Amino acid sequence: MEMQIVFPGGAQVDAISGDMVITTNQDGSAPAPFGLFLASIGTCAGIYVLSFCTQRGIPTENIRIVQRMSSNPFTRMIDQVELDIQVPPDFPEKYKEAVIRAADQCAVKKHLENPPQFNVHTSVVEVA
Predict the structure, then answer these.
(1) What is the number of structural domains in the chain?
(2) What's the predicted TM-score (pTM) here?
(3) What is the 3-state secondary structure (H, E, C) of the chain?
(4) Residue 118 is assigned to a structural domain of this protein
(5) Same domain membership, residue 66 and residue 12
(6) Rounded distance, CA 73 to CA 88, Å?
């Protein structure tokens, strides 16, 4: 698996994965990288919730996930993430725990629980 990170100009930094370009920027014209990271947690859980509900014919129009984060005041690092799966009153009671288990399958969450090693280095490439 490979992704290219490129610098198209200004403060913009893009990630290219296959045919998809993910644009980031620190000036507010695009999401900041850290914002995308945080969004990936909730949207990943959302994919699993959506799939769970779709497979059971449960409408998702009135379901949402509210993601809350708290930070350590000394390190200013996020130390807790809460995902509140908000369901409508007619959501089947028998599926409330199961939808939590579905959200817990999120690959982003699993990678944070068992983080990969990072190896950062430089290499020289010839410019064409």
Answers:
(1) 2
(2) 0.87
(3) CCCEEEEEECCEEEEEECCEEEEEECCCCCCCHHHHHHHHHHHHHHHHHHHHHHHCCCCCCCCEEEEEEEECCCCCCEEEEEEEEECCCCCCHHHHHHHHHHHCCCHHHHHHHCCCCCCCCCCCCCCC
(4) no
(5) no
(6) 35
Q: Domain check: are 104 and 51 in the same one?
A: yes
Digits of tens for pLDDT over the chain (128 positions)? 899 999 999 999 999 999 999 999 999 999 999 999 999 999 999 999 999 999 999 999 999 999 999 999 999 999 999 999 999 999 999 999 999 999 999 999 999 999 999 999 999 999 87
Q: Which amino acid is at 24?
A: T
- Tell me, yes or no, whether 58 lies in a domain: yes
